Queue: 4 jobs
Job 1
Amino acid sequence: MLALLDFRVRQRDFLLEISRAITAQLDLSEVLKRVINASVVMLSGQVGLIALRDASGAYRIRATLGVESSRVPFLNEQLKEMLEMASETHEYAAFDSKLRETAEALDPRLVQTFALPLVIAGEARGLLIVFRANRGTATPDDIQVLQSFADQAAIAVSNAQLYERIDQDRKRLAAIVQHSADGVLMLNANLEIVSFNRALERMTAWKAADVVGLPLDEVITWKRVDKGDLRESLDAGWPFRSRDNTGGDVSEEMVYVEGDLLRRDGLTLSVGIRYAPLLNADGELTNVIANVRDITNFKQAQEMQNIFISTVSHELKTPVALIKGHAATLRREDVTWDADIVREYSAVIEEESDRLTALIENLLTASKIQAHQTMQLNQDEDVRLDHLAEQAVERFKSQSGRHSFKLNFDDDFPPVPGDSVRLRQVIDNLLNNAIKYSPDGGLIEVGGCADDVSVSVYVRDEGVGISEADSEHIFERFYRVDGTLTRKTQGTGLGLYLSKAIIEAHGGTMRVESEPGQGATFIFTLRQS
Ligand code: ADP
């Protein structure tokens, strides 16, 4: 009797020890391995199985002992059937006989079976099964001990599952942060860097491994700050907590800092950084999370908008002022104008109205190109570029007395398929520029050459020319070379942008050859068919 008592005490100690070892584990597969080993040892069994319910509620074998892994699909199949039978008949007997059949199929010597549910908070989460060859009967005490062990194991499994899920969530979150297109930076309360994602490596030219542990100010350095200051906000008591209007949640305000970041390689990048505080339960700042966004495109768009507004308003003002002035003069009731004056003033009004119409047309076309990335053409005619050039020269000749003009086309210059209205616009624009940007006059030559597949047309002047740096930009929307001549000269910076778009819509190319002070030659090339 004493010996039996001693055995029971030792069995309980063993159980306790194992339970502790199991519950201390957070790795699910290790927990399952320990549970199954302990159960088989405790019952002097030969085979052990643990099935857990997956997300769909179905039982799947997750750990085995004493079974070859090739038998697992068979065991899963058997398990499915026995659980279906049990749920249909609500009888343990059917389940039990299927269980015995399974044990026998594995090894005919396995004559005893034990199956215990792993239950957490009243919910079955899995099944612990042990098969043994021993014919000795299990006492109710054995079963009770085993059940209490199964309960402990269920808690351990549940903890490990929870941990696994949290770990999975953590990994998923880390992957999101790592692969985010925005830079993400985590700081501790002393503003030292705790983590630094890949996007931020690209933005700052710093490597994450080199910055962890460094103070923020050593890595995030500014060439220019336009808005906000994290240190100032902290000194002023940030994070400020405010109740939102709905009277509910307490929200922490973010600090927004914007400016030109000085990268490690000396280059600059326009960024906006949003700092969000992370507080502990006592409301103390534990971390700061920074979201860093590259705002270069946004800044460029803003700049473009400013240029657009100033250029367009300037270009609109001149003709509108002229129209208004001439119309007001003609309307004066105290003077009777003779017919010549009326004609002359009306002509100015008409010309300036045409200019306004052309400007508006150009703006609309430019915005359509922006939206569709290309230009719509009526491309069904054979266009004689030499004739267009001749007509244009005739028109411009009468406008400019300071320039001499020369045409240089062979008589058999081939026609090209295209949109004659648009191609005329290109030649007019190049000639107009040649005049505008050679204020001292000189020769303006328009010519062309052709081979079997393509034709090229050039417009050459002897004007101020264009530097190499500006040559790269003059075909951009609203770009105008910064100089006194350009400032004095009317223009929107749209002419070359539209000309190039027209030539490219025809499948051709356009370029410039120039040196400052040496004049400029604009050349476009189109396919012959
Ligand atoms: P704009 O309306 O200003 O003339 P364009 O798009 O036609 O606009 O030209 C863009 C800029 O390129 C001009 O502002 C001028 O600075 C430069 N440019 C164009 N053509 C010439 C040229 N023939 N010689 C020198 N500079 C030129």
Note: The chain has a mean pLDDT of 89.
Job 2
Amino acid sequence: SFNKIKMNLEIKGHVVIVTGGAKGIGESIVKGVAEEGGIPVIVNRPGPAGPALEKELSAQGADCLFIEAELAKVADCERVINTAVEKYGRIDALVNNAGKNDGVSLTKGSPEKFMKSLENNLLHYYTLAQLALPYLKKAKGSIVNISSKTAVTGQGGTSAYIAAKGAQLALTREWAVELINDSIRVNAILPAEVWTPLYENWINSLEDPEGTLKKITNQIPLEKRMTTSKEIADAALFLISARASHITGQHWYVDGGYTHLDRALGNINL
Ligand code: NAP
């Protein structure tokens, strides 16, 4: 009957690998997966955040797993997939999210720093997709790549990160095509200004954190505020769900209109 109607994501029991899952956007995706009855696999660098999140979710009755990994290392990526499959025997979705805007610039960077940054920000998106593929095929699963609006607008001072973020968008289309006959869907989300530990650290490294934050939020058309990591997570959950069963190769801007809308008009009372 109508009073039972709800938008069932149908991810109950689905194993979802979330890289960088201990903090920020990844943490929100992990929590969202657990809330919907899925099984989040939290992949992150060593530190207290990952085990604490695993404990918190387990205490609430969720099935989940934390795997410590430095994703720049291919061997760690292999261990991640092997460990998840050993425990659960399946992978339904891969959310490639771990990354950092590390400021390797055209003028002050070097080819070595550029390549190192690609290892931190891009290589594991490819490696994990390749390693997860046999399982994603069995599950007719999906991949979500978390990119950044900087991939299409530029930012200045951060060539390597931008190269990684742009490549993630290109790979989203490339993999959507390559995996079309396997019914594996591949989509990307482009956050712009999202309040996370990464963002907080960045803003606090500036001369006038509060003033700069005010200037930035004033440019965000919808409600003049930061996007929350939960709002990014909601989009990711939808994209990995059965409700997005005919959506593939898409680049979704979850940014309160920041990238596309006319900011000048947004600042005038119409
Ligand atoms: P965050 O708060 O720093 O969280 C990212 C998590 O990923 C951290 O726990 C970090 O661990 C982990 N991580 C990063 N690189 C890793 C690696 N090589 N191996 C293992 N773990 C790694 O960042 P966030 O703001 O949520 O960002 C998540 C994604 O969104 C990134 O791809 C970022 O580029 C993208 N994004 C964010 C924004 C924004 O406004 N926040 C905007 C555009 C795009 P440690 O903390 O220990 O390093």
Note: DSSP finds ten helices and seven strands in the chain.
Job 3
Amino acid sequence: MARRSDARRSDARRIGMLGGTFDPVHIGHLRSAVEVAELMALDELRLIPSARPPHRGEPQVRAVDRLAMVELAVAGVSPLRVDDRELKRDKPSYSIDTLESLRAELAAEDQLFLILGWDAFCGLPGWHRWDELLQHCHILVLQRPDADSDAPESLRNLLAARSISDPLALEGPAGQISFIWQTPLAVSATQIRSLLASGKSVRYLVPDTVLAYIHAHGLYRDAN
Ligand code: ATP
């Protein structure tokens, strides 16, 4: 509890963002989100489904279905929320655009935390206007205890200048990087799509409400 109160020294709100295709959302995303939100004493953790991800192929199901499933998954689960701003834009989902638009809605002192897996973090130098991200947010890197963790050369200077070891010591609205060590549940959306395409059960890998939606709408029956 002492750490929690340290993390909340001011009236600034603490908002996390977790982007993804969520094709479909699953318990790996959800457990991870709950754990980060608790550890960081977040006021909100926003799951942000992406429209056309710049770094990968088209999602298998329509945006409206991916959004509906994330909404069902987080209904009534504070402080998780869904943010559909990327689905409202008719452009690729660049994080810098999302951060700028979210920032514009917040008070200047509010703290914004962009949550990224280690792999995504290592790919940062390929992102659109990546060197501007830290003007708008802190970056929380989810690190697996078993992972190889040598950062690429292009990120070494940034890490040396901006990273701190204790995520609860991130100060101010933006500008620093820290790490959260977390063992992810061994589940992926790829695995779920493949189970469904071969007629197998995904019960307990997704919330029951999401399972009911998948079946009611006949999603993921065909391999893609
Ligand atoms: P796919 O299998 O289609 O690539 P995915 O399961 O990795 O999908 P995404 O929607 O691409 O899901 O992931 C969104 C975010 O959630 C990413 O930051 C990703 O690293 C993270 N994530 C994915 N699976 C897990 C998991 N099992 N535990 C914790 N975080 C996860």
Note: Residues 14-184 form a domain with the Rossmann fold fold (CATH 3.40.50.620).
Job 4
Amino acid sequence: MNKALKNVRRKVLVVEDERINREILGNILQGGYEVVFAEDGQRAVDILRADYDTISLILLDLMMPVMSGEEVLKICRADDNLSDIPIIVMTQDEDAEVSIIRAGADDFIKKPYNMPEVILARCERIIDLYEKKRLIDSAEIDLLTGLYSNEFFFEYIKQMEKYSDSKMDAVAMDIEHFHLVNEIYGRAEGDRILKRIASMIMAELSDSYGIACRSAADTFYIYNQSLLDYEKLAEKILKDIEAVTFENAKIRLRIGINRDVDRNDLPEQWFDHAKLACDELRGDYTRQIAFYDSAAHDKQLYHERLIRDIDTSIANKDFTVFFQPKYGIEGDEPELRSAEALIRWNHPELGMISPGDFIPLFEDNGLVQKLDRFVWEEAASQIAKWKDKFGFAVPVSVNVSRIDIFDPDLEDRLLGLLDKYGLTTNELLLEITESAYSDSAKRLIEVVNNLRDKGFKIEMDDFGSGYSSLNMLTTIPIDVLKMDMKFVRNMLNDDKSLKLCELVMDISRFLDVPVVAEGVEEKAQLDKLKDMGCQIIQGYYFSKPLPADQFEELLAK
Ligand code: C2E
Ligand code: MG
Ligand code: MG
């Protein structure tokens, strides 16, 4: 017996025209059940119609006046309210068994009633069976919409998967601001809309290989063969709802589609992804449908991971600073002049991550400031150590991101570092990328002017990659031009790049500032640049960026 209901007394309807039989059955059942009696079929039907939801079992005699047992059986089986009440037929006629069961009875008891234990056991078993079945039915179906419940939906998908490997879509459909519909128009209206949507989905699926469920209040999941025209379905639903609802309720559907699901993932993930696409549409009134894109999703997850880990990684020193030497090439022998500080992230689980993967991300959300402060501090302390050890300072450039420019404390922060480590503005240099100049020229020129007034040297990084106008260049305060790497990379096999290198050299002469050529990997590039008058080289030809101790070995030489 169903455990939760163990202590509830079930009600049994005994339908029997002979008083003596009613009394015998009454005596047998009364210990465990509440018993109601009907002395003919019509009376039984009346009681059932009034009380169907409290009666757990019918014991039915066949031969009765007014209305026969068979007739009652027929009526019960044809009536939605009565069809799931179990019926045990009582008969003298052993041969009638089969036809009785065929007519819809669940079991039979033989007259006369001389085995009370058997009768009780049969009653109990049938009631239990029916209750279990009802429990399963109710868990399978969402009572409001008649669609599957969430849990059974996934159960059925797993069943379907056993028999089919055709292309399937996972679809999540959501109503924008549905809670407002409930609040403004009442829950009943909200329910009506949900039912309407559910029945349209069901109709749409009726002749395709698909199923649907209501996964949450206003979210529907559809799993079906990649056939449906979702745009059309949405249109249809909206039109239908408009027709049956109050005038001003503008319902908006969002549909996220995970097309041709990846069977390496779990069904739950298919729908997580569909829902993700669906949620992307929140507040976007230009689109109604979004497709899940796994590459974009992976990238998003990766970025979220990096953002989540930045603080712990700073605290655990997973970030370190490397130093790449810059060489003066004007004399006969190249000479180590200075270095650029470049951040490295040795993530405990993801391994080495290139700055190209995280700097742009952290520039977008402002987190790059944290990293820059870390790098500046590390670089300053390292310069001071070397100064101590070798008796001379190697100037080190640090990158200043476009975000830092808007930090009102930038100047104080940098001056504070010089103070803390006993450095001068000739020892800690600043690189600012050219594109920052074109982003916010006015503010940047102001900030850079102030920094230069304090003595800082500014190198314009990646020069040639941005869109500085010649006019702007003449007004811009800079001390060094760092030629964008891609000119150097292509200078030997692409005439245009070579010409651009020459142009950068001309501009530098015009501005009267030295040029640093980055990305020099080959002797031929170096020679060419030297011919053009380039004074400083940074590149793998001399050295990759190095950890502090390896850079120190270079210094010692
Ligand atoms: P960048 O400031 O232009 O730095 C030069 C980049 O070129 C470095 O890449 C360096 O390793 C690379 N490089 C130098 N010589 C060669 C060469 O011969 N061949 C090739 N293929 N590459 C060379 P890295 O360290 O991967 O940094 C990339 C960019 O990330 C940097 O470009 C800079 O914009 C940014 N970045 C790095 N560290 C920091 C930092 O601490 N703060 C900020 N805001 N940005 C940083
Ligand atoms: Mg740089
Ligand atoms: Mg650069």
Note: The chain has a mean pLDDT of 89.
